[in-house]
Amino acid sequence: MLVEVCANSLESALVAERAGADRIELCSELAVGGLTPSYGLLKAVRKQVSIPVHVLIRPRSGDFTYSDTEFEIMLTDIALCKELGFEGIVSGVLLKDFSLDVERTIKLKTASGDLKFTFHRAFDWVKDPFKTLKQLNDLQIDYILSSGQQRSAPLGIDLLSDLNQYNSDIQIMPGSGINAGNVELFRNVGFNAVHLSGTTMTQTLSKAPLISMNTSDFLSDDHVAVTQLEKIKAVMIKVK
Asked: Which of 5, 45, 116, 144 is the least crowded, having the fewest Cβ atoms under 10 Å away?
């Protein structure tokens, strides 16, 4: 069974390799479901990690329906991953009705060339998972990362198993909530790959700071924080 570890830093990637992981999905910001890692992190991991690394291509948190500018950024990030010699990318794009954005998925797949392509957990939002599986199979996607449209893969194992038995060339890779206590369940029902982070929150300061830099108002699946023209202009009028 292939074990892919979602690593959010160079340290996490090196730990995963040392532990015997088969592959890494490299990202940042696990709290929002992962974002594309920085150029510096990409270079460091490429230099120091020897097992295959697939890079998450997701320019922001929130939904998986992107503006033209955001999509161009995604294509640029894929080109960078190819240039740096990574083995695969992980991405996903949807339409606002929670169906697969076929046109843009084709563009992402074409841009990735020979790199392996994992369609990520945007799959867990689609209205018709079996139709989407067929569409992705037709596009020759290699993996689908999914929790079975539940909060965790153990809760979604019935749908995951049905998807895994569907006549498809895509590998279904369960992810979310997988650990040493339940991973054998997935192997025993026929999965060939699993995805997990294996993380624990590690304390870095001896005491909490005076104020928090985390802003819960910015954590949303259906809203995106965007700078407003009127608000900035109002400030500029006051100081110019």
From this structure: 116
